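Re-running Colicin D immunity protein domain-containing protein to confirm reproducibility after the cluster update. Everything else is unchanged from the original entry.
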Amino acid sequence: MEDFINEVITVGDFERDYLRTFKNETERMDNTLFEILNGAFEAVDCYWHECPPGKETAFEISEKQLRKEVSEALVRLNNLLKNF
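Result of re-run:
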């Protein structure tokens, strides 16, 4: 997530890796963790490379919006981990 937010990896690489990792996860996780990770999954699933910033819909988001949503998910994950 950090590599994508910091533009170390491309949106295509992040999309491919995140979807694969999330779909193949087999360990149980609590509801809060699942909600955070699933929210990021849904954002990745809505990403469309031709969607310009500011023209997002409920079903299509831009790369800029995806970075924003992944960044928010990472903040939530870090806050959750601080409480463990």
